[in-house]
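ERR on first pass: missing label on line 2. Operator R.T. fixed the label and resubmitted. Corrected input:
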Amino acid sequence: MKYRTNKVRKEDYPIHNWYRFVLSFPPHLVKHYLEKFELPSDSVVLDPFCGTGTSLVESRLNYYHSIGIEANPISYFASKTKLNWLFSPDELVDTAFEIAERVDQLLKEEGIDDYNLMHTNSIFLRNLPEESQKVLLKNSISPIPMHKSIALIEEITRIKDEPLKDHLLLACLNTIINNVSNLRFGPEVGVGKIKEDAALLNPWLDNVKTIAEDISSLLYGYENINYETHLGDSRMINQYLSPNSVQAVITSPPYPNEKDYSRATRLESVLLGLVRNMQEMRNIKKTFVRSNTRSVYKQDRRIELGKTSGFEKMYSKVTLQYFGGMAKHLANLRPSLTPGAKLAYVVGDQSSYFRVMIRTGQLLAEVAESLGYKVLDLELFRTRPATVSKKMLREEVLVLEYTGDNG
Ligand SMILES: C[S@@+](CC[C@H](N)C(=O)[O-])C[C@H]1O[C@@H](n2cnc3c(N)ncnc32)[C@H](O)[C@@H]1O
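pass 2 clean. output:
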């Protein structure tokens, strides 16, 4: 096995750390395939499920053009922001310090001292609209941290300069999630130790300084390396791409598991106003490849309605929908690929229901082959024990080549 199974060290990967690095797949994996594919220098690398942008950023760092598609608005915002390296790092830091001073003063007038974690007894607390609060996991964030977070976000959003504003917001979201909220991330998101209060401004300024330091080394040399990001559904990927324009795909699509990708990003989605109520949350989830039983909708399962089949049927249904969605994606992708294009899909096995093993990599390989792709390899990336059966589940990289023949 070529890859380390131990934890990737965050400090080895500047930029990727700007937002939610722990949730993404490791950049060294992307680098490995960029090298292995021996791409011509002006190649375009696509990530159709780009999340917070690991493969796009890594491609750009290696001087390849990149295109990302992402269905979750907050992840789309993060990847778009992480790719924009054209702004003055000094101005970013200066603006952040000015904002921090204003917010500190405002909070003090309201009876809150963020630097010393003190507050007077009776304070008026800002909060989100009731409809938005319903989207959050209960106790995601305590009242005083919520109040301070809203104050800082409001002040940042007054800035006119888009790249500065976006980077300051990204640093702010990162701080809220990691330092200020009560959220805890295992494989799934949950609520951990309740923090009645937590410092916001200092850790935010530290995050901003990290971004500024990274940017200082990225200002030159990347001017002619293009990137685009689209908020969209990769099952209809042909809507976003020009014909014959992509030389490589490196991606980690959703796995057919019980993980609900929208749960992990609710707090920041709501804080930025990208999701304002449960209906908007549901609408966004409909654009995701169905990967868990909670995301199978009424219209998807009308055949099952009235039967007593319950979860068992849902599970087979979601598996069918997952592979159906991925098949649609792979079929619609073909016109945009140049013949000989190389593709790497990082996918994981699943056995969450009745210990029925779903060999995702193998099944996806069969789907791809039927659509005219050549399967070059199914490489083991790492293994992890299944929660119940303790059987080893494989995370694999399905390596494909587009021959130009559409099956
Ligand atoms: C395993 S994550 C990818 C993580 C990514 N490699 C990173 O570094 O952050 C899968 C991503 O696919 C997105 N997704 C799910 N269905 C999608 C669809 N139909 N079109 C585009 N993106 C989708 C999810 O929102 C999620 O961000």
